[in-house]
Design goal:
CATH topology: Spore Coat Polysaccharide Biosynthesis Protein SpsA, Chain A
Helix content: 25-40%
Oligomer: single chain
Structural class: alpha/beta
Number of domains: 1
Low-confidence stretches: none
Radius of gyration: 19 Å
Strand order of the largest sheet: 5-4-1-6-11-8-12-10-9
Length: 289
């Protein structure tokens, strides 16, 4: 098994029901953060971690994702004549990485989506970045995790501290801290009740997994007809193996949530050099009104 993380899997087959009607005819992953689709920000995070081989798990009505990363001669011919700066920005999208696609046949959960990557991954460790979650940080989140994997050679997930009120929204780990900011995961539970949460450390939709996880996912898939959850497979893995939770420096935005989506747009806008000079005074004015 290789130590270097060379491949990433981006599950992007969800229906986006929390953002209806905006997602009725377009993938939620293609909703823009100002002028950049969410899925592009996720791909750029993987690329910033040195990963150039990316498999996106799509579903029905997700063709727009493939079209976005494809080269468009018609648009490029127009931009080349009218706007060279925009031409360069758009052109680099098709050259970000070697992107592959496979379609999840039925909406059977995150674990089932990851299982579709088995043949592509082979016998290598790999990154998983959820396609509807953006993480804003000075050092890209996945780059932080890749560095930690290189140190310990153990599968892991990024975690973040959340409030007691927020634990019901996320997967929460039961940790045993063994070095600063790095925890051995005893178990994890998906969206627990506040009084049953084992901690307030939430998984942040970023993982580095090893190919052993596919065996656990296959056993879950064979034992039940309902959704196959990645959390359940990792729980089974943790019974006999070491799995880590690593505190990340960064801010997570759940784009599947309306408020999370709005926060992402606002925070990205006030940090962008080409926008903040206009948007910050506007927001201040609105807050005073």
């Amino acid at each position: 098994m290789l130590d270097k993380i060379k491949k990433a899997v981006i599950p992007a087959a969800g229906l986006g029901t929390r953002l209806l009607p905006a997602t009725k005819a377009q993938p939620k992953e293609m909703l823009p953060i100002i002028d950049i689709p969410i899925i592009q920000l996720v791909v750029e995070e993987a690329v910033a971690a040195g990963i150039k081989d990316i498999l996106i798990i799509t579903g029905k009505h997700k063709r727009a994702i493939e079209d976005h990363f494809d080269y468009s001669p018609e648009i490029m011919n127009i931009l080349e004549k009218r706007d060279r700066m925009l031409f360069k920005r758009v052109e680099q999208i098709s050259r970000l990485a070697n992107i592959h696609y496979v379609r999840q046949q039925k909406p059977k959960g995150l674990g089932d989506a990851v299982l579709y990557a088995k043949d592509h991954i082979g016998n290598e460790p790999f990154a998983v970045l959820l396609g509807d979650t953006v993480i804003k940080s000075e050092v890209p989140c996945m780059k932080q995790l890749v560095k930690i994997y290189g140190r310990f050679k153990k599968p892991l997930t990024g975690v973040e501290m959340v409030t007691k009120e927020e634990v019901t929204k996320f997967g929460i780990i039961e940790p045993k801290t063994f070095v600063k900011d790095i925890h051995i995961v005893r178990s994890m539970v998906e969206k627990p009740d506040r009084d049953k949460a084992p901690s307030n450390l939430a998984m942040n939709a970023r993982y580095i997994l090893t190919p052993e996880i596919f065996g656990y996912l296959e056993r879950l898939e064979g034992a039940q007809d309902k959704e196959v959850q990645l959390t359940n497979a990792i729980n089974e893995y943790c019974k006999k193996n070491t799995f880590l939770g690593c505190d990340n420096v960064g801010k997570r935005y759940d784009i599947g949530d309306r408020i999370g989506y709005l926060k992402a747009i606002i925070d990205h806008a006030i940090d962008r050099e080409d926008i903040k000079k206009e948007i910050i005074p506007y927001l201040r004015k609105k807050l005073r009104a």
